[in-house]
Amino acid sequence: MLAGCADSTDDPHLDDDEGTIVSAINEPLSADYSWNYYNDVLSVAADDFLYSSAFVYTPNTDELHAEGVADYDIDGNELWLEYRDDWYWHNGDEVTTEDVSIGFDYHFWLQEADGARESGLLEDDGFVVESDKTATMVFRDDIPQSRFWATDSLVREPYAANRTRHADWHDELGSVDATSDEWLELWEEFTNDEDQFYPPVGNGPVEYVEHSDTSLTLERFDDHFAAETLDFTGMRLDYHEDEFLAFIEGQIDYTDVGMPVEPEDEGLMPDDYDYYGQDQLRQAVLKFNNGHDLHGDTRPTWDVNIRKAIEYTFDRDAFTSAMPYGYEPLEFPWDGLPDEIVEGQSDEFLAMLDDVDFETRDHDEDRAKELIDASENYSYDESEEIVVCENGDANSDPGEQATIQILSRQDIRLDIAQICESELSAFGWDVTINAVDSGAESERRRGGEYDFKTDTTGVRTLPSHLNDWVRLEDRQHTPRTFEVPWPPGDADGDSHDWDHRDAYSRFLSTPADASDEDWGEYLIEAAWVWNQTVPSILIASLQDVEALATDRFDVDYDHPSVRLAHQGEWFRLPEEIVWSVE
């Protein structure tokens, strides 16, 4: 349930099928939002709620789930789709293949205007309408089963475009050569047309009611195919300069930015709070000490073979089943690239990245033992079933069982550390956990007094990615250059020495209009080196609502705000799960 609900209902907790969720967005509605989904500059107002997707994509398992489609079938390079009979626009129109076709036309015309149509994933006639409810998507090659294809081609774009609302613009844009300057001028006019698209007509779980400069009011769309899962009648988005302050002062009940997650900060929350929003993932991440700021001593994790061996030691399924709040295992290779520099990129770049044979180190204890024996200072004693430190290191004397020191804060990270201790001890390491507060953790981290630290950070940005690389290359044991095959992952291809700083300098100086291969080379090579040098391990993650519980917040899983946790997934959340904190 939520903390006190401002100006909504007499019952602030919305236990019954009535009431309004009061949420907040930290941007002015009038200045930064558009009612036109195709606006090139402004964000779509409340698009997560106003629109639904044909599919939902689950990133941890790399799986598609049909939502707006009733059925689908993949055969080679073709994807057959049957759209739901009970999916409606807010003006009463059924969602049909004509609407989806308009969206694809916009998508294809833009590719033509950018000179990128031939490199697109779909054929020139890539969306073939068969009936009002069935169509076939035709790809240039066999359909790649990857998160990039799924999110860009089926989930995020293109949204269906309501045929009634878009008819005139679609006809006008279609009458002009998309490669001409005239078409670009027309497209600019189209994307800046607010009058034609206000009030907005969506096809999602809530519909537009009214707005002011400071708030947007929406109500449940009862004809939506998932309407029966929503136990509220409406929601209001209030626009504040400071969402956190608005939440603390009780002006709003829900916010989509992070609240304090450290135990020492929980006192900042209202006494009766139960729920908050967190616009990021929660993850089980192990960040290795690769030798930072240490001179003279050595540690097991300075050796890349040991880092890889540790990753092979973990059984992700068993690991996540031991997690207290329902994490899911990561089942595809981690390339280290932040989502912000992957999402929305061209089909050509995504295809290049998808072709890279990144290594997924699934549970394999025999392989872990081989890597330990291949390391410089460690071996695996089969008779004793222990890892032995041959020449001594910062943790162990020569000939003793090798020790791993885990650094952790005293929150959900400690739960992760204890599971790591159990699995590594069973394999043959002597494991010590140093559970400390945030201040001591920072001091030990800066002093290099650990082998790996547990983390739950889910948001990675390009600056943080680059900062990790600078630190990695500053570490005394790591060479500044890496031998990278091109294309990465191609054992039969050419290879060259790769220096991160030089490569990044070239990346910054690459013109914006350069080919994808020119400017994407840095990102793909960086991802390859990241995957091969293993500066950290991502074992599992969970999103949105599940993340709240990891931060020790009480979550009523049946609360309506939980159903709106993530676009397309709010009505998929398992109702039988109820989070509780002891």
UniProtKB/TrEMBL annotation:
KW Amino-acid biosynthesis (keyword) present: no
Keyword Transmembrane helix tagged: no
InterPro entries: SBP_5, SBP_5_dom
Residues in Solute-binding protein family domain copies: 72-452
GO terms classed as biological process: peptide transport
Coiled-coil residues: none
GO MF, any single term: peptide transmembrane transporter activity
Keywords assigned by UniProt, alphabetized: Signal, Transport
Xref: Pfam families: SBP_bac_5 (PF00496)
Family the entry assigns: Belongs to the bacterial solute-binding protein 5 family.
PANTHER family for the chain: OLIGOPEPTIDE-BINDING PROTEIN APPA, PERIPLASMIC BINDING COMPONENT OF ABC TRANSPORTER
Protein name: Extracellular solute-binding protein family 5
Taxonomic source organism: Natronorubrum tibetense GA33
